[in-house]
Design brief:
Blueprint lengths: L2 H11 L4 H11 L10 H7 L4 H14 L4 H7 L3 E4 L18 E6 L9 E5 L6 H16 L3 E4 L5 H11 L4 E4 L13 H10 L1 E4 L11 H12 L2 E4 L7 H11 L3 E4 L10 H8 L3 E2 L3 H14 L1
Helix pairs in contact: 1-4, 3-4, 6-7, 6-12, 9-10
Length: 295
């Protein structure tokens, strides 16, 4: 059994991030020793309950006898571990990178030079739809891949606009590829899996859980050259992604909105704090080109 097979077996049993995986390997040296390590030590090494560690170890030992690569191939799922040349190098700049990526669709989009995240409120209004009509076509003309999270609201609008205007888009999921969330995006997800790209750090069987989505947001930000926010309330998960982007040294662009709109309160505040106000895609391209010239 190869190291990759053992990594996939471990990740299927318990989807560790790269930091936790490295910490585990510092203690056991290689995954070959995982079968012999005690449940108590394993629980302590990766900071989980003993019951969880017991299930992890039992599942891992069983899966080591299974050809997971063949299993994933049968479901048209491409595996990109952190050791692969196909793994996006910019993700290593995250504070806690994913250890494995699971892809369905055109994984070459991960290597596109220009990628920009377009996000916003799950309660996005027609204002976001109108904003994307001004923002996304110029980005596509300049060969930018649109990255978003397949959530309802602004994410859905961004993916649909990219498809409508003949561009390419990446949907980063907060669950495994056997789940579609929200269910209303099932048709869109199927289309993206055939002509664009679905990508996630979670094995196929993992369902959608609340804490997965902030984790997903770091990948959206990490893959992208910059971030565009159309609408966001003052207390919004969207703002978590903008904070991550700023920590990663990415430009954040925000669409100014009516002062009476609760859905624009967050974007207007981002502008007050230093985000770049924009109302069409050409402004984004000019700003990014100017930044590249300075560097």
């Amino acid at each position: 059994m190869t190291t990759l097979h053992k990594l996939l077996a471990l990740h299927y049993a318990y989807p560790l991030t790269l930091n936790k995986l490295h910490y585990l390997l510092r203690n056991i040296q290689t995954l070959n020793e995982l079968e012999t390590v005690s449940v108590s030590n394993l629980a302590q090494m990766i900071n989980i309950k003993k019951e969880t560690a017991y299930t992890l170890k039992r599942t891992y030992v069983s899966l080591c006898q299974t050809d997971l690569l063949e299993f994933y191939a049968s479901k048209d799922i491409e595996i990109i571990p952190y050791t692969s040349d196909l793994y996006p190098k910019q993700l290593f700049q995250l504070s806690d990178p994913p250890a494995v990526l699971y892809c369905k669709g055109d994984s070459n989009l991960l290597t596109a030079q220009n990628k920009i995240a377009c996000i916003g409120s799950r309660e996005a209004t027609a204002y976001s739809a109108e904003a994307f009509k001004q923002i996304i076509p110029p980005l596509i003309q300049h060969h930018y891949v649109i990255v978003s999270g397949l959530a309802k609201g602004a994410d859905t609008l961004a993916h649909r606009a990219a498809v409508h205007y003949g561009g390419k888009t990446i949907a980063v999921l907060g669950h495994g590829l056997e789940t579609i969330y929200p269910r209303s995006n099932e048709q869109l997800a199927n289309h993206l899996s055939q002509h664009h790209l679905l990508v996630t750090e979670y094995p196929p069987h993992v369902g959608a859980k609340k804490h997965h989505f902030p984790m997903r947001n770091r990948i959206i930000s990490g893959l992208s050259n910059a971030l565009v926010v159309t609408e966001a309330a003052l207390r919004s998960g969207t703002l978590i992604t903008t904070e991550l982007a700023l920590e990663q040294g990415k430009d954040v662009f925000a669409v100014p909105g009516p002062i009476t709109s609760l859905q624009s309160a967050g974007t207007n505040n981002l502008i007050r704090e230093g985000a770049i106000p924009i109302w069409n895609g050409y402004q984004i391209i000019e700003e990014l080109q100017m930044f590249q010239m300075k560097n």
